Amino acid sequence: xxxxxxxxxxxxxxxxxxxxxxxxxxxxxxxxxxxxxxxxxxxxxxxxxxxxxxxxxxxxxxxxxxxxxxxxxxxxxxxxxxxxxxxxxxxxxxxxxxxxxxxxxxxxxxxxxxxxxxxxxxxxxxxxxxxxxxxxxxxxxxxxxxxxxxxxxxxxxxxxxxxxxxxxxxxxxxxxxxxxxxxxxxxxxxxxxxxxxxxxxxxxxxxxxxxxxxxxxxxxxxxxxxxxxxxxx
Length: 233
What we know:
The chain is built from 9 helices and no strands. By secondary structure, it is mostly helical. The chain has a single domain, classed as MetI-like fold (Orthogonal Bundle). The relative contact order is 0.15.
């Protein structure tokens, strides 16, 4: 049965969805923190001289990159409580669903974060470090004042793309019952017995479009700022 299209419902629906952006942002922030923390360890393992750590890091990165987001989410959501109960006799079924989403997406993001950090670090020539040490800087000063700013500048385009991808992947949270922007939209559709579905999805798409444009502009602004003050020796 064909349903009529009501453009005015888009305008009515957007304000209803906006309050649930806070959950979407919490997931994004948490995922970035977990991803960078674990990604740093993976990148350090790849860049180090320990062959075992390098092989293990490469294996984990490849495994995470090959795992679909929805699969990782279900593995963490259904598997982590079983693991905790089996090993520690601890029941974590009362944990917030947001924790499971952050852990699942954070682990997946760690693979991308590790590759971004590794490639950005290697993009800075060894001569930069040697010149910094020759000029009297310590290892720590050479890293923070010379290497890190340049590596960060190189990483910005990839970071921006990764943040946008994370924003969209966070919409999978509704599949385990978390009410975020996507989850609220599905609730509205269910409350209307399937009515205004296309209007609701268009409303969600508009919000995601705006957020994506904002993220792109923020990263472009930061990149321009860092480019003006680029440090080299």
